[in-house]
Amino acid sequence: MITADNAYGFAYGTEDDISMYWGGIENTTAGEIFNCGEGPELYVVPAEEADNASFLYIIAWADSSVTQGVLARFRRKDGGGVFGEDVFTGTEGWEVCATGVDYQPGSGGPTLQVINEHIGKCNAGALDPNTTSVGWVDDVGTQYGAVAFGEDNTTPYNGGPMAGNEFPLVCPMDMPAEAKWMWFNWDPGNVQPPDSPFMWPGGGGNPDHQFLIFRFAAELVPIPM
Q: pTM higher than 0.85, yes or no?
């Protein structure tokens, strides 16, 4: 289950490339991000295909305005319909690569070919240090950025978006309270409260960071016991 402010695609594949991609979810209204019925999207990965996937991917891009982030929940189901433990955006293990390329909602986002080309560049760690994360970074991060985990899905707006309370609640029937908003912090040493990586431009960062590739190792999604 995934939603994003503003746009994303869900994928799975290997460390080197994506084998299946649901792309081009571009939310243009608040309801398409947050509301029950029109907000979060549900994806089902067939078991035989999941067994061949070593990574889950979220490809994200956003408009240059107000707030930006992704929120998601993943879980496995056994043959009897029993679910394993949930993992979320906010669970340790997420990595991100900021590509240094900008896509705006309405563009359709990057093609699968472009995404796979950038996965290769991220793996090589050879991207421009002036406009990218150079390679993959986790929530600890490097001088080039880090995965940012924000508020969980328990707090409604307190009068409107502000640092630490950037988002309203996402449909509680779809998205558990434990899920945390996730984005890229372009400068972990300096983008600290009252700045926020979830508020455009993320503390004064580089707008070319808007095309992000997040990944999570599939083996970290627990098998039902």
A: yes
